[in-house]
Design brief:
single chain; alpha/beta; Aspartate Aminotransferase, domain 1; Aspartate Aminotransferase, domain 2; 2 domains; five-stranded mixed beta sheet; three-stranded antiparallel beta sheet; 14 strands; globular; binds ligand F0G
Length: 460
């Protein structure tokens, strides 16, 4: 008999959910311009919009908040955060920010000169925005398998060393601002890089004096996949694998709203004190004084505790990814096209495969996310042509290979029964897929358009 695993926690406080009627949801999605970002959370039943800031904190984190030192300068809570980041990730220089994009902003401003190239393993929306905003040009150097939703490559987050070498050769090492290496690549479907690849990229860059900056937002989940899939790591603790990932980099930006188990916060971590000085000079202008940056003392307390808690035992990440895999495998069993292997933070529905009657310009993933919401009140997010935005040089829509709806699982929030309800809704929508109509823009913001764009159904 196979034995079940269960969450390594029990529930101490609950937040009631309400179910709405289909009629109500039809009216709300129209009001929201078919954009799930514009729905009110009261109208949502199970919220899988994002795993960002949606974590349930532990009793220890809530009690740590009472210890928050709100001193403007030199707060004790800051030094606890410095210690936690040094102990768990091994970086000495800590620059606290209000969330991940605050750290990306500072990093981009200190390292990118106009015309520089930033190679990276697929883009993330805010990361690329800040790289371009600083005058850089992002070049995707992820392996080809990452763009194929059906490839079963175990490390679809890997950087293709030949692509990296080729862009370095083309522009010269001195025009490479840094290599932007995302762990557990979000837009590829929560897909990890192997330790072998992380080490090889760092070794290659060191020979050319190119910095490697991790986006370590989901490095914990990446460490879990290394433990499960890479030879020689099965008996290693998650804590030691995470540390080894960080050891192969010159610094990292982290959105602490994910792995780190808090609702707000982030940081830039560096090894080089001179670079850290430059970042702190900007920090005081854009975020706050260097010992709180963008966070209150209580937020830094909760974050320091969250960073230690996430690696305290391996059980946390095993059950976190296990829940995502449970949902993904249920959908696969019923023939729903999803990105494989199932990722670390969510299940990514392949909208292009599911809605072959729509062209990519008819925004299939946006339409599918809206249809799932109408069916059950489950809220997911478009990750396709709308999220990819326009090419800043030509102004044309980018056409990414992946046209996905992301069902992102918050940490420690929902139970297996919630996952069953989600799966049943997606399966049902999939059975009536041909009734889903395409969408067109009625309002398109200039940058990061997916957050606030509005759409209407294309007239028949
Ligand atoms: N990097 C990655 C890989 C992310 O997934 C995010 C945020 C950020 C950076 C930016 O961090 O939101 O704290 O400013 N991802 C959220 C998501 C928004 O839903 O995937 P932030």
């Amino acid at each position: 008999m196979t034995r079940s695993w269960a969450e390594p926690w029990k529930i101490k406080m609950v937040e009631p959910l309400t179910m709405t009627t289909r009629e109500h949801r039809e009216s709300e999605i129209g009001e929201a311009g078919y954009n799930t970002f514009l729905l009110r959370s009261d109208d949502v039943y199970i919220d899988l919009l994002t795993d960002s800031g949606t974590t349930a904190m532990s009793d220890r984190q809530w009690s740590a908040m009472m210890l928050g030192d709100e001193s403007y300068a030199g707060a004790n809570s800051f030094y606890k955060l410095v210690d936690a980041v040094r102990d768990v990730y091994g970086y000495d220089e800590l620059i606290p920010t209000h969330q991940g994009r605050g750290a990306e902003h500072l990093l981009s401003q200190i390292l990118i000169s106009p015309g520089d190239v930033v190679p990276g393993n697929m883009y993330f929306t805010t990361t690329r925005f800040h790289q371009e905003y600083a005058g850089g040009r992002f070049v995707d150097v992820i392996i080809d398998e990452a763009h194929d939703p059906r490839s079963m490559h175990p490390f679809k987050g890997n950087i293709d060393l030949a692509k990296l070498a080729s862009i370095v050769h083309e522009v010269g090492a001195d025009r490479i601002a840094y290599v932007s290496f995302e762990t557990n690549v979000n837009l590829a479907g929560g897909q990890p890089a192997s330790m072998e690849n992380i080490k090889a990229v760092y070794a290659f860059c060191r020979t050319l004096d190119i910095l490697v900056m991790l986006d370590a937002t989901r490095a914990l989940e990446n460490a879990y996949f290394i433990q499960q899939r890479e030879g020689g790591y099965a008996d290693r603790s998650i804590a030691s694998i995470l540390r080894e990932i960080a050891n192969n980099s010159d610094g990292a930006t982290v959105s602490s709203k994910k792995d780190n188990l808090v609702n707000i916060g982030g940081f830039l971590a560096l090894r080089d004190p001179d670079l850290a000085r430059k970042a702190r000079a900007l920090l005081v202008a854009f975020e706050g004084l260097h010992t709180y940056g963008g966070m209150s003392g209580r937020d830094m307390e909760a974050l320091a505790e969250g960073i230690r808690e996430m690696v305290h035992t391996d059980d946390h990440v095993r059950s976190r990814v296990g829940q995502v895999e449970y949902l993904g495998n249920t959908l696969l069993k019923y023939g729903v096209p999803v990105v494989t292997p199932i990722g670390g933070h969510g299940v990514f529905l392949d909208a292009a495969a599911m809605l072959p009657h729509l062209t990519q310009d008819e925004l299939p993933a946006q339409a599918l996310a809206a249809a799932i919401y109408v069916d059950s009140g489950v809220r997911g997010m478009e990750r396709g042509i709308v999220s990819a935005g326009r090419d800043p040089e030509t102004g044309d829509n980018r056409h990414p290979n992946l046209e996905l709806v992301r069902l992102t699982i918050p940490r420690r929030v929902y139970t297996q029964s919630h996952m069953d309800v989600v799966a049943e809704s997606v399966i049902e929508v999939c059975e009536h897929r041909e009734t889903i109509r395409g969408l067109q823009f009625v309002y398109e913001p200039d940058s990061l358009r997916f957050f606030q764009a509005r759409f209407e159904q294309i007239p028949v």
